[in-house]
Amino acid sequence: MNVVTIDEQLNYLKKGLAELIREEELRERLIQSEKTGRPLRIKAGFDPTAPDLHLGHTVLLRKMKHFQDLGHTVIFLIGDITGLIGDPTGRNTTRPPMTREEINRNAETYKEQVFKILDPHKTEIRFNSEWLEPLQFIDIVKLCSKFTVARLLERDYFANRLKDGTPISFHELLYPFGQAYDSVALHSDVEMGGTDQKFNLLVAREIQRDFGQAPQIIATVPVLEGLDGIEKMSKSKGNYIGITEPPKVMFRKVMGISDDLMWRYYKLLTDKSLPQIAELRQSQQPMAAKQALARQIVADFHSAEAATQAQADFDREVRGGEEPADIETISIPHDAGSSLPKILLGTGMVESRTDAERKIKAGAVEINGQRVTSLSYTLAGPIVVRVGKKWKRIEP
Fold first, then answer.
1. Number of domains in the chain
2. Which of 10, 36, 276, 323 has the highest Cβ tally under 10 A?
3. Is the entire prediction scored with pTM above 0.85?
4. Domain membership flag for residue 80
5. Residues 6 or more apart from 243 whose CB is under 8 A from it?
6. Considering the domain boundaries, does residue 226 fall inside one?
């Protein structure tokens, strides 16, 4: 990237950030980096609590890539120790503990997936077990002595849990210190995270000072809403788009978001500038803009050819109502009898028999291209069933 001045670098790095603490400190470090030729060390931690990354993670990864574009070193930190604690940020209950085997398995998938965005030649992949496991008890006591319990309990979610009488396990209070010591061990110049991580990132600044290091700059990115447009994107909430999902699945999920959410996705998930997004909003109909966004997202994680095919599949199967080329074939239990609600429940396309009955009566069920409104149906051979936008081929 051909960026010349410090101001241009700052403007490039600030795009899409929610908060920068502090801009003047980042300016000074960029100046020093230019003078000395030493790249800044940009850290972001990811606890491997789920096997796959989703688009919510990529908001942060994309901004990390911007630092790489300017020649700096990104540290993709896998929290294999902090993941065992479980980040309490934003949680109303204690996170169930994970096993070392689960952590290791998920960490391996993270290592494979991050290079869909990051430059492998400018990325360090580190595990915080390197420095957290060797700590002795006296080291942990000294680390914890830097903060008071009262200050930790000022955090909203801890305060709310205390108010509600919800238990707080002591190990949860250790999480910010583990994350802070990561910054000390890595000599972090900049740490990135979601806006919900601000407290943990500020703790690291203070701990670094205690260890005689210059406090890291904090750069937070907005939390990406999931497909519902309300909750934070999360696999546990089912409102996510995984970066390894098939192209047609990714495309359909993007097409299902609201128009308002679409423009937020443009801002956080593409490299388009704010003026470019504003111009697009004025010049294109929402449907065309959403298709362009879906193609871009699929192309980013698969290929341009896959994006073109995903749109063709969407136009044919969803907008045109035609049978998918890759329709799944399943078998139905013999005890389904002639009850169509029970048959549909066996396909997994309805949530319950009551849901099945409601969809049948609403005319949302087709068998071999014909709408069916009767609750009774006898399987006499292979059939193709459609419930709304879902398809299955049934072999009796």
1. 3
2. 10
3. no
4. yes
5. 52, 53, 54, 55, 57, 58, 113, 116, 301
6. no
